[in-house]
Amino acid sequence: FAIVNLIRCKNIIPHMDKKLLEFYQEFSLYTNPGSYEKQLKELPDDIRKIGDLVRRNIIHRTTLAAGNSGTNKDKKFGDMTKVPWWRQPEDDILPTASAILAELYRRDKRGFVSTRKEKDKLVLTCRFVAILIASILKSKGVPTRVRSGNAPYFNMGKLGKVSADHWINQYWNYNEKRWITIDVDGSWSLNENFDPYNIPEGKFDFAADAWINIRSGKDDENRFWNAEPVKGLIVVLWSLFYDFHCLMNDEIIYVHVPEFALHKNFKNISKKELEQIDNLARLMQNPDDNFKELEKIWNTNKKFRLLKGGLL
Asked: What is the pTM assigned to this prediction?
């Protein structure tokens, strides 16, 4: 898909609400590219080429830890022996697109290149790749949003067939008048045969669907895992709140959650709080049609908005 062909034409009026698309075209605190917007606009307009470039400049922490084995047996992510021994995951210090871009260009002034040396690659996880993709597409005028949930299409080793916490993107296709779901971070590591740049419905476990299905007894909470590692309903709750914030253009880092979602508090969560979360999840199952109601919750519910974790 060439992004240049997806940017809104003045003569085309999509069925999607204009203000909603303009909302997802805006930068957030996290997706703002800062002084690098011009460089992002100059990147290729083809979504696959964009994704390939991003993938070639970033190493996932699990890939670094596994070295030249598993999904990197063929060294498609680079030779991990060439990464400095002291290099650690950089999620904690590069939480925004502007920070990611500044460090990317500091290590190699050419920026996004397919020949970046392993020692100059960034070590970041899926949430940060999604932030970067959103920043690039928004710079090109394409409505884009980050989404959080769980992916059942990775090889999780000893854990078996589970759905792992994961962050992806959706961008608006004006020609097809729909959101297209893409997974750049996982695009080279799929354990199933489908297009990561046009993910079929049902392949990704969106948090709202998972929460509702578990609460109604239609799904097994133990199928859902987080990298801590933790499993169960609390994992889905975290993804639900990450996703809620993402839908509001506030792509929080994953050490931040509402106070009642902390481990020590979740076991004592009240029936009223569960019902409020159920209502939120139902609205999030169709976020476009329910955007005004979600926005009202965003602007009024302190429990859902005020977070804990890290330095908060």
From this structure: 0.94
Instruction: Name the one residue in this structure whose structure tokens are 């710079």.
Output: 139
Whole-angstrom CA distances from 23 to 33, 76, 92, 124, 295 are 17, 36, 27, 27, 12
Q: How far apart are CA 104 and CA 88, in angstroms?
A: 15
245-274: pLDDT as tens digits: 999 999 999 999 999 999 999 999 999 999
According to the model, what pLDDT value does residue 2 have? Answer: 62
Cα maximum dimension of the chain: 55
Cβ atoms of 307 and 256 within 8 Å: the answer is: yes
pLDDT of residue 121 exceeding 50: yes
Q: DSSP class of residue 44?
A: -
Mean predicted confidence (pLDDT) in 17-28: 97
Hey, CA dihedral for 119, 123, 129, 135, is it positive or negative? Answer: negative
DSSP state of 237: H
Q: What is the dihedral of CA 54, 55, 59, 65, to 10 degrees?
A: 160
In the chain, the amino acid numbered 1 is F
Angle, vertex CA 94, rays to CA 88 and CA 95, nearest 5: 125
Q: Quick check: 25 pLDDT over 90?
A: yes
Contact 144, 24 (CB under 8 A): yes
pLDDT at 228: 82
Radius of gyration, CA atoms only, the chain:
19
